[in-house]
Every structure is written in structure tokens, then in C-alpha cells.
């Protein structure tokens, strides 16, 4: 028995040893398989190589390596000047980096080529070969590793300061971008967007083409997200908070970010909808339109995370923008004590976007300057009910506009305030539009020293930025800056329309503003894909140093007839002779509301404006003028009409005698026997007194234009 037992024990021990050895081998094999590094090949031109970045560790592939960690091996196969085109002047195919990248046998290939193909030596001659050559390149990488995952990139930006930008690069660059999108569809490969996050960061491109180390970091972060899918978890857009208003009678769209390939679910109005997060970490979910009402709750959820927002109303959203007279707070207004006390409007909601620093005559500190470069100019905020506490620091004009519209319609109102003191109109226009405008593209060129920009704006920007060591330091007054920092991220939100109070920082060049302002309206309407109502305030009156204001006010009046679906509120009767910020703001907000009620809400019983010049004729040395909205034409003080001038020749105006006869104003002067031109309210500080039955003032006008 003992011998048999010993033999059995020996057999068992031997079997255990075999099992143990096999297990260890299997574990070692599995460990070896899973411990293999994933190879990432960064294929491209000088941007990939890192031209201009002195520290190799700051080049994008090197920063990507740090982000990904030891489980990945990242190779930099960029070559300066490389073209994608085989017939280009420096084909990537003929360079040593191409062979090295194939020998690397990457598991993931990131391609960023095409910038140099915008060269006159390449694109004009060989553009028809670009798609085929790019697809060939993708297929070549897959042939050396059939499991390779190839991702191609939209091009990093080329900015207006590039020597060929206006002559050729601008157009060819976008033709290449379009071709790359086609290639992604044909080859069924992921398209990375290296353009969007960098196009609004010109401060990171010292030569208008190559990013700095910080710019390379943004590229690395974009590629890291595409490889790992890690975008920091569920984050609805910052415009969504408890207490918000969502636009009625239009599809209700929610959007935000989450980790790639997860599913985001939204529970809203007792309906649930979900969407997959795309490879860029973005998601978007749309619900059917609703009529005005509420309150509602909404819950966003994804992978164990849940975010709930409550007290949501469905109503009308108005964007309130411009410069300091729109920014002007309710507690500064002439009627502040009464207004604040009565500011209890639970169905009027306020989203107050305040800057991290006001553009006062001070030098900003380093931290502020860096925030501004990162487009972090507006502090985080949330929707608030209108109460005395929330209203006092909100725009006086916007508050009175929203209050009037709400009282007349009963519809919940959301007011988004995004206004910056001193800001010129061009800072609110998107970069692509300005880059492609034949008259305005030059605004970017050395903007702090060119004469497109108001001298006061340039001086203030230089003062605010004087402690910056970055020669490309950005500022809110820079063309396109405020669009990129404050408008761009909310353009997916359906809104009813815009109210606008701005012009003081563009008054130095009336003719240029006549190009800029319609371009701004077009820019925003294109961004929202909607013919948004656009109601704006005509400049007020001021006596000191405002010699252009008569011309500017008349130009604003004429622009109203050029811009469809617009209206202008006159404010010249409320001006302050010594202050560019008149305190009478209630009337301005209510005059804007009249345009909205009449034109947007269809309240045809409302007179939207004071008298607006319509036509005139001359008979027996007297000019007879007719007006729109002239019901009950009269003067505000019962005295004869003032501020009329008359001329036979342009520029030779004389004070005129005027009288009202029915709905017509008769104007004459003993010094002008053959009248040909009439103007009204032309001085910078107007004392015009012509009004209609509602007491609304007539606009400055000239028949000369």
C-alpha cells in the first residue's frame, strides 16, 4: 500500500508541476501580449516635426508621449516642407521619414499633411491628384500593418499675416480642407479637427503658420482624446443650468462633451432620448419644440454620472450685446431706485456674462492676460430669476427691454447679456467672415497699430496689455476676439433675436462702419442659421469731441433699410452733453421692445419708432418733408420745430425755419432760394424736438445721401 500510495503522490505532484508550469507560461504569454506597447506614428510636415519649437520635449508627438504614458510608443515622423502630393515640390513619399514611418509598423497612424500643398508650386498644378494620393498614403500604412488604425487631420490654421494669405493661400487652404473631409469619407477613417481649437488662438502662431509649444499641446490633447476617448466625463454646455430658458416653438437642442463612445441619455419633459458620444467627445440630442410654459426638469446621464437641472422655462431668448451702454447696470440708471425695488419677475431669467477684467485705463496682471489668451474672458455664470438682487447688476437697457416684452406678451423671457465696454463692432465678428471679406481682412494686420481700429481702442488695448511679454497678446478689442470668447459657444442655442447698443468705438470712420455692421449681422445670422431680428440703438447726443456723430447717426438710420428684419431705437433726445453714458436707460429698453413687439410679435397696434424721414419735394422755395410713423406729428415742448437745416449745395447748410402742417414738415430759409438738401438733428448734441403722438423722437437724417 505504501508503494502504491507513494507512486500516486508522485504522479499527482508531477501533474501539479506541469499545470503550474503551463499556468506560468500562459500568464507570461498573456502578460507579454498585453505589455506590448501600442505604436503611434505621427506623420506630417513642419507642424508635426515641431519647427520653431526649440525644446524637443514641447513638440506635439513628445507631449503626446507623456500624456499617453509607457503603454504607448510615439514616433515623430514629421518633415518640414513636406507635401502630400506626389508631384508636389517636396513629396513626403520621397523623404526618409516616410520609410522610417513604414518600418515603424504603427498600430495607430496620425496624418497631418496638406499645409504645404497650398503652395503655388503644388495645388494649382496638381490639385486633381490630391484625393487619390492621400487615399494611396492611407492604404500604404494599412498594407504594412493590416490592423493599423489611421486617423487623418483637418489642417492647423494659416493666419492672415502669412505672406501669401490674400494672394492665394486663403482660397487654396479651404479647398484642401474640403478635400480632406472627402478623403475621410471615402477611406472610412476618423477625421481629427486640428483647425477649430487653434483657429481662435493666433497668439500661439508667431509666424502665422507654426504653433508654439502651447499650440503643440493643444494638438497633442486633441490626438490624445482621439486615441483614448478620454474627454473628462459628462459635461453639458455651460449655457445649460437650472433656471434656464429654452426657446419656444423651435427644436430644443442639448449638447456637450463626454468620453468617446459612451452613451448620453437625457430625460426631459417625460421623454427620454439618447445619443452616442462621437470620437471627438461631442454629443448632441434634440427634442421636439414646445410652447411657452414650464417649469420643467432635465437629467443628463452617462456611465454612472447624472446631472439634474430644474426650474426650466420655455419662452423667448434674446441676446443683449454691444459695448458700455448695453453693459450699463440698472443700479447706475436714472430710475434705479424705483426699478430695482420693482424687479420681481420670476419668469424673466438673466444670464449675466461678466468679464474677468474691465477695460479700464489700467495694466492687467499676468494671470488676467493669460486667461484672455486662453479665451477665458467671461466668468462662469448661471441663469437667475429676476429679483432686486440679480437685476441691479444686470444691463439696464436689457432689463427694461425684457420687462416690457414680458408684460406685453406673457411669454417667459430669457436675457443673455454679453456686452463689453469700449468694444468695437469688429471684435464681435467671426474670424472666417473677416478673413474672407475683401474690405475687412486687413483689420487683423498689426491690429494695435493699423487705422482700421479706433485710436482710443488701440491705446486702451496697449495700456491693458503693457505687462504682457507675449508680442501676440490678445485683447477683447482685437478683431474676432469677443465672438470667439463669448458668442461662438452659444450659437447652437436657438434664440428669438438680438438687441444691440454699440457704435461709440466705430464712430471715427462712418464709411467703414457701414461695411462692418452689416457684416456683423450677417456673421451672427450665419452662425445661428437664422434670419435673426436685429434691433439696435442709434448713438445718443454728446457735445464734446463727437464731431462725427451726426453723420454716424444718419448712417445708422440708413443701415436699417439695408439690413432686413432690423429696427433702430432713437436715443438722441436722452443724451448727456458731457457723458458718453447717459443715465436715461428705461426709455431705450422700451423703445427696443417696441420694435420687437411690432416686428417680431406682430403687435401692429404699437408704433415702433419715432418719425423716420421718408421723402421730400420742393415748391416755391419751401421743402416739404414726409415721415414714416408720423401719427400726431408735433414737437416735444410745444415750440416750433428745431434743428432743421437747409442747403442748395452739399456742405453749405443754413439754419432753417420749420413748421408742421398735418403730417408734413415745411422747411425754408431766406438764405437758400433753391433748396435741394435738408437735414435734421445733425449736431453732435442735438436739440431736435420733433416727435409723434407717442412722444417718440425723430431720427437724425439728411436728404443728401
Layout of SSEs?
Layout: H1 2-35, E1 38-44, H2 46-49, H3 60-68, E2 72-78, H4 96-104, E3 108-112, H5 123-126, H6 130-144, E4 149-154, H7 165-187, E5 190-193, H8 196-199, H9 213-228, E6 235-236, E7 245-247, E8 252-257, E9 263-268, E10 271-276, E11 282-287, E12 293-302, E13 305-322, H10 324-327, H11 336-341, E14 345-352, H12 366-373, E15 384-386, H13 388-391, H14 396-409, E16 413-419, H15 431-435, H16 455-464, H17 481-487, E17 497-501, H18 510-528, E18 534-537, H19 549-562, E19 566-569, H20 586-600, E20 612-619, E21 622-628, E22 634-635, E23 644-647, E24 653-655, E25 657-661, E26 664-668, E27 677-680, E28 690-691, E29 701-702
Parallel strand pairs: 1-2, 1-3, 3-4, 4-5, 7-13, 13-16, 13-17, 14-16, 17-18, 18-19
Antiparallel strand pairs: 6-8, 8-11, 9-10, 9-12, 12-13, 14-15, 20-21, 21-26, 22-28, 23-24, 23-27, 25-26, 27-29
**Uncertain spans:** 1-12, 17-34
Q: Globular, elongated, flat, extended or rod-shaped: what is the shape?
A: globular
For CATH, the homologous superfamily of the largest domain is named as SGNH hydrolase
Mean pLDDT: 94
Strand content: 15-25%
Amino acid at each position: 500500500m505504501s508503494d502504491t500510495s507513494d507512486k500516486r503522490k508522485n504522479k499527482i505532484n508531477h501533474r501539479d508541476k506541469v499545470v503550474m508550469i503551463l499556468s506560468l507560461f500562459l500568464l507570461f504569454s498573456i502578460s507579454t501580449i498585453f505589455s506590448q506597447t501600442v505604436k503611434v506614428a505621427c506623420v506630417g510636415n513642419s507642424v508635426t516635426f515641431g519647427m520653431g519649437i526649440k525644446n524637443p520635449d514641447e513638440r506635439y508627438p513628445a507631449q503626446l508621449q507623456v500624456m499617453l504614458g509607457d503603454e504607448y510608443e510615439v514616433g515623430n515622423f514629421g518633415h518640414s516642407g513636406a507635401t502630400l502630393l506626389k508631384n508636389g515640390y517636396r513629396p513626403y513619399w520621397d523623404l526618409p521619414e516616410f520609410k522610417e514611418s513604414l518600418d515603424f509598423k504603427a498600430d495607430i497612424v496620425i496624418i497631418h499633411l496638406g499645409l504645404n500643398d497650398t503652395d503655388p508650386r503644388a495645388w494649382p498644378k496638381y490639385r486633381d491628384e490630391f484625393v487619390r494620393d492621400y487615399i494611396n498614403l492611407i492604404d500604404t500604412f494599412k498594407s504594412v500593418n493590416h490592423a493599423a488604425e489611421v486617423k487623418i487631420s483637418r489642417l492647423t490654421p494659416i493666419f492672415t499675416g502669412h505672406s501669401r494669405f490674400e494672394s492665394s493661400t486663403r482660397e487654396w487652404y479651404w479647398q484642401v480642407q474640403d478635400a480632406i473631409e472627402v478623403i475621410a469619407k471615402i477611406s472610412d477613417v476618423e477625421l481629427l479637427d486640428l483647425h477649430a481649437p487653434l483657429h481662435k488662438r493666433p497668439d500661439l502662431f508667431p509666424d502665422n503658420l507654426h504653433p508654439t509649444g502651447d499650440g503643440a499641446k493643444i494638438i497633442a490633447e486633441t490626438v490624445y482624446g482621439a486615441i483614448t476617448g478620454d474627454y473628462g466625463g459628462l459635461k453639458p454646455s455651460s449655457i445649460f443650468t437650472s433656471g434656464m430658458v429654452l426657446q419656444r416653438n423651435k427644436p430644443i437642442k442639448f449638447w456637450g462633451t463626454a468620453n468617446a463612445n459612451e452613451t448620453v441619455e437625457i430625460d426631459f419633459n417625460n421623454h427620454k432620448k439618447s445619443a452616442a458620444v462621437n470620437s471627438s467627445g461631442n454629443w448632441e440630442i434634440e427634442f421636439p419644440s414646445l410652447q411657452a410654459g414650464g417649469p420643467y426638469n432635465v437629467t443628463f446621464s452617462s456611465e454612472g454620472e447624472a446631472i439634474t437641472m430644474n426650474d426650466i422655462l420655455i419662452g423667448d431668448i434674446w441676446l443683449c450685446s454691444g459695448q458700455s451702454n448695453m453693459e450699463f447696470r440698472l443700479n447706475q440708471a436714472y430710475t434705479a431706485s424705483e426699478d430695482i425695488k420693482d424687479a420681481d419677475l420670476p419668469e424673466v431669467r438673466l444670464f449675466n456674462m461678466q468679464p474677468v477684467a474691465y477695460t479700464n485705463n489700467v495694466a492687467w496682471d499676468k494671470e488676467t492676460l493669460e486667461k484672455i489668451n486662453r479665451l477665458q474672458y467671461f466668468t462662469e455664470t448661471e441663469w437667475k430669476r429676476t429679483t432686486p438682487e440679480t437685476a441691479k447688476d444686470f444691463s439696464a437697457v436689457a432689463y427694461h427691454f425684457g420687462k416690457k416684452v414680458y408684460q406685453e406678451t406673457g411669454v417667459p423671457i430669457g436675457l443673455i447679456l454679453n456686452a463689453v465696454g469700449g468694444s468695437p463692432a469688429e471684435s464681435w465678428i467671426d474670424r472666417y467672415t473677416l478673413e474672407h471679406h475683401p474690405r475687412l481682412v486687413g483689420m487683423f494686420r498689426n491690429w494695435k497699430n493699423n487705422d482700421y481700429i479706433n485710436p482710443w481702442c488701440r491705446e486702451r488695448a496697449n495700456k491693458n496689455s503693457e505687462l504682457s511679454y507675449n508680442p501676440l497678446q490678445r485683447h477683447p478689442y482685437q478683431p474676432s476676439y469677443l465672438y470667439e470668447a463669448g458668442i461662438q459657444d452659444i450659437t447652437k442655442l436657438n434664440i428669438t433675436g438680438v438687441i444691440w447698443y454699440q457704435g461709440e468705438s466705430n464712430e471715427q470712420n462712418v464709411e467703414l462702419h457701414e461695411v462692418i455692421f452689416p457684416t456683423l449681422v450677417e456673421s451672427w445670422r450665419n452662425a445661428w442659421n437664422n434670419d435673426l431680428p436685429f434691433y439696435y440703438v442709434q448713438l445718443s447726443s454728446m457735445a464734446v469731441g463727437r464731431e462725427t456723430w451726426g453723420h454716424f447717426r444718419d448712417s445708422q438710420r440708413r443701415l436699417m433699410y439695408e439690413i432686413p428684419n432690423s429696427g433702430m431705437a432713437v436715443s438722441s433726445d436722452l443724451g448727456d452733453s458731457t457723458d458718453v453714458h447717459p443715465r436715461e436707460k428705461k426709455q431705450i429698453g422700451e423703445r427696443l421692445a417696441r420694435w420687437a413687439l411690432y416686428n417680431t410679435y406682430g403687435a401692429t397696434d404699437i408704433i415702433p419708432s419715432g418719425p423716420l424721414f421718408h421723402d421730400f419735394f420742393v415748391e416755391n422755395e419751401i421743402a416739404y418733408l414726409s415721415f414714416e410713423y408720423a401719427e400726431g406729428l408735433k414737437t416735444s415742448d410745444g415750440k416750433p420745430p428745431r434743428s432743421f437745416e437747409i442747403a442748395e449745395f452739399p456742405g453749405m447748410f443754413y439754419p432753417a425755419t420749420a413748421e408742421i402742417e398735418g403730417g408734413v414738415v415745411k422747411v425754408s430759409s431766406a438764405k437758400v432760394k433753391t433748396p435741394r438738401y435738408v437735414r435734421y438733428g445733425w449736431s453732435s448734441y442735438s436739440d431736435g424736438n420733433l416727435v409723434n403722438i407717442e412722444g417718440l423722437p425723430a431720427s437724425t437724417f439728411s436728404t443728401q445721401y
